[in-house]
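User: Fold both of these, please.

Assistant: Here is the first one.
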Amino acid sequence: MSKEHVLVCLSSSETNRKVISSAAHMASVHGAAFSALFVETAAFRAHADDRMLKQLSRNRSYAAEKGAHVETIYGDNVACQIAEYARQIGASMIILGSSPQRSFFGIRGKNMAERIMSEGPDINLYVVPLRPAHTASYHFKWLLREPMPYRWQDILITVGLLGAATAVGLLFGAADMGDSNIIPLYILVVLAISVLTSSPIYGISASILSVFVFNWFFTEPKYTLRVIDNAYFVTFLVMFVSALLTSSLTVRLKDYARHAAQNSYRTKVLLDTSQLLQQVSDNEAIAGVTAAQIAKLSEKCVVVYLAENDTLKAPKSYPSDQKPDPGCFSEIDREAAHWAWVNRRRAGAGTAVYPSARMLYLSIRIRDHAYGVIGIDESETEMDAFLLSLLLSIMDECAMAMENEKNVQEKEKTEEAARNQKFRADLLRSISHDLRTPLTSIYGNASILETQENLSEEEKKQMYSDIAADSMWLIEVVQNLLAITRLESGEVMLHKQAELMDEVIDEAMKHLDRDGKNHHISVHCSDDILMAKMDARLMVEVIVNLVNNAIKYTQNGSDITIQAWKEKKKIWVSVADNGPGMSDEQKENAFKMFYTGSNQVADARRSLGIGLSLCQSILTVHDGTISVQDNHPCGTVFTFALPAEEVNIHEQ
């Protein structure tokens, strides 16, 4: 079963607050989603005064405080726009206030509810009864408002074009071209005035004036307003109606073009914001991009409070290159921001909650989770409906980006937990499998030595040797495990200083496996000063692991060569052998912990491969690299590199 959705219709009436309250209560009772819609018509834009605009803003804010998603759309067929929007959002209920009955010569027309029902008969519609005296009505009182909307440029355009049309008409009259060519000329001028002026009042005024000017200059008796031929009254009526319709249609087309441009601009801004948000990955950066976009669009100061650990962090202001007014961080503004975050609703300037605050606070929320609060300075001018709708859309993009970031982090945590679980499973499996054999060998040899008294000295010596070898292998495994764990967790404190690589290699040669005497090991260092910044103790361990690895996986009598040289500001060290070599798969996985293959490339006699992984970890914390290649004609070469340390020689 789909969730209910309640849509309330907004207006500039004071009684609209009662409609919003009823709709919010209905949405709460049904557990429904809640939206509020205002349809802005050309008539409203032309006729609405400051009182109506402020009341509309209060009604929008009240709807948002009640939890509604507020939207503004544009069109002249209000009923059709409401029904179409309801279908788009899946509204199951429409709530509106009662509207006055329209009549023409005593014949009652359809009211708003009836017209909506005819457009969307499948939607439940509820009408909240209101007192007729308080319903919104324009009538013609806008014509009497003071001051009249005027600009000197528009007045000059109107008078100039009418004068030009009259001059051309007089030329037509002198050429005896007839009145039929002069009337379209005035209609064309009214059209031009409607296009070039900023208010429809000029087009309407031009329609009226054109009739009087035509009567004064072109009808008998000329230069008077008297009319001898009654047929001219029909001409005047047709001329006036034609000019008025032309003016009205032109104004409407201008409005449509303006709204199309606004929608195009809104789409571009949202697309730019979405692209910018895709380029950042943490909540701080996401909030910064959002606040910067809002500050650029609104040209106002913007403050961001991000939530962390069930509290709001210290605020940050945008644009970052401008110093905000201290009033933006007053105690009442902080309380308003905290209230907006806790209640997931707007607060501050222009709302009923902390109205004395300097800023309007909007929560960055998606569903029931709020990631923070964004405040917009409303101390100088209030945002219009279009800008507020655009900013709310940007806020939704911001909340969605933060939600996606949260999901990514949770996914990474889940994957990390799975990797850790696999790591522990591999570790336990490898240890249980590989440690069992040496422990069994140690236990068996110790038991024989304890119980068998007739053993020869040669047999006892061999058993002691086996116990020592197995014990040493266990010690190396435990040491390597501890070392790599501490390195990857960052617990190892590095003591880096400039060291000569040939001295480090010489020290490593003293700690090789005792089986090294069965191989030919040689060291070749170039004549250059091979100095690098390193922790000598850890670097000795790298070389020992690499050489011991070659000792254990090559036949007795094999050649193992250690070379060191300087090239391209790096110190290079290689450990090469002429043993059986490694397959491509083994080379690819050689530095992975616990890797096993048909011929294990491990650091011990069995399959527990951690020595090479330890070497890689040590070199990583030294900003170095390590790789493995084939040795020709046979064998393997392990090569690592460290950044060379500059050597300054001061001669005296």
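And the second sequence with its predicted structure:
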Amino acid sequence: MENKYKFLTQIEFPDDLRKMEQEQLPSLCEEIRHFIIDQLANNPGHLASSLGAIELTVALHYVFNTPTDRIVWDVGHQAYSHKILTGRRAVFNTNRKYKGISGFPNPRESKYDSFIAGHASNSISAALGISVADYMNDDDRKVIAVIGDGAMTGGLAFEGLNNVCVHPNNLLIILNDNNMSIDKPVGGLSDYLMHLTTSKKYNTLRFKSYHVLKRAGLMNDRKKNAFLRFANSVKSIASDSPGNIFEGLNIRYFGQLDGHDVVQLVRVLRDIKDLEGPKVLHIRTIKGKGFAPAEKSAPQWHAPGQFDPVTGRRIIENADNCSLYQDVFGKTLLELARQNPKIVGITPAMLSGCSMNMMMAEMPDRVFDVGIAEGHAVTFSAGLAKEGMLPYCNIYSSFLQRAYDNIIHDVAILKLPVVLCVDRAGVVGADGVTHQGAFDIAYLRCIPNLTLAAPLNEYELRNMLYTAQLPGNSPIAIRYPRGKGAGEKWAGMPMEAVEIGKAVKMKEGSDIAVLSIGHIGNAVNKAIGMLGDDADKVAWINMRFVKPIDTKMLDAVSRKFKAVLTVEDGVLQGGFGSAVLEHYADKGTRIMVKRVGIPDTFVEHGTVNELHHALGMDAEGIAKTLKNLLKTIS
């Protein structure tokens, strides 16, 4: 390793990096690039984004005194080189693994991680808060927010920008513009950034004027803001181009720079680091830089799984031929759209991730990728529904949290026919604490007018998607997990209506009734098979709907069985099991109820199987709970 990584092996922390000669930095960047490719070839993670941000990361840690100076990353897909340079190179092979390091920045893991970074668009607001706190505490340190152009479509990013010049701060915002988030970014902002430039003549004039006034003692906060407004007003005289959105908000703008020229980045960062007031440095980068397959097809190499680092051949294993739930959604949606011209698809920047790209390829005028803007996606869907369309709005469970008010205010109150397709529901695995789809049952089931369903398998998902577009059946939220289904035949099968609020008894039993919701019911089936002779004592019911819940089935269960076990892939507090308990409490029914699900904790990263096992939610854990429950009631 020392021969292959001559410079990288000399660096444990940024203090070591800052001892290097500036002309050595390009070689270091290439070593980091090869290190990331070698590591991720065998231990999958977010490849393309991290390859595109290497030079920026090296320049930031070289110029700024981290961790005293704070770097706030947005999303965190681009932060692998940051982790490698901040004491985690030796354990980087544990990235995203159970009990290993997280795939995203997290202050609990390292003092170099200034803020949590899993969901997009929070960096400017968080960094502004840190910068203002430093100003109030009279701490003289630098704060940098690094945000990708895809994350700039998020409403929170604009809220932060709008507030940047209201309070005294010296925040530096670095816009890492690669014309790519996961899929190609959309909207007017993306087009705007593509053409945004600044005049060298204008930059020189303004920079010199600022320092002349500063040396003269004429740059207190009030006069500084007046100067900024004056400078913006005369930009059209000194510049060959009109003002830009950042300078319109009184945020000093520098750019565009080649984000892969580490020496130039170091020079510019040194030039602007001590400038007072908020500022934006706009750099252009290439997602997947230095690895030809990733540069050519960035969406497919965002998180490619295992691959050959030499040939670029991706290693895709699917020995059991089970379909991914996202593909069941994508193909079924396309079939439904062919039959019903009112159906449209909406996704916030997850076109390929949710498989809505299938419909996009055939019906581009009926699919809307709105960028990283979940709240807008829901309210946009509501507007479409208000005028007679049938929107299928696909949002990952943990991302849907950011659209909660929109679901209540803009969909549920008016009872608009919006189909919320809640992908990645339940434990999702290696993406970890910020991405686990743990909360959607709890936060959706309390909303009036909203139906909440969860399919047991692929065919049930297909039928629920069909049922959702029938008159009177929406608004409805259909939650399903990440990854493979149960192996149930579904492709080409006729679509059948599912009776809303109707559970299905899957197995008879004498003593205990297991009530499951969603895909985790397949683990229940396996668990019962592990009970041997006691299997006959356990009945299994696939509830299918959390709301409306099948109260007739619950009442029948309470009359026949000694105990109930509820099983869900979601939080226990306020979840499906809570709904069962509430029904029995409201009716005064006395029956023992035991619940299996996610306890009152945030779930870290690992494989889905590892996490389900640790939480007692796999077949082995459910079987153990059933055995203990049988002993209790015997």
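DSSP finds 26 helices and 17 strands in the chain.
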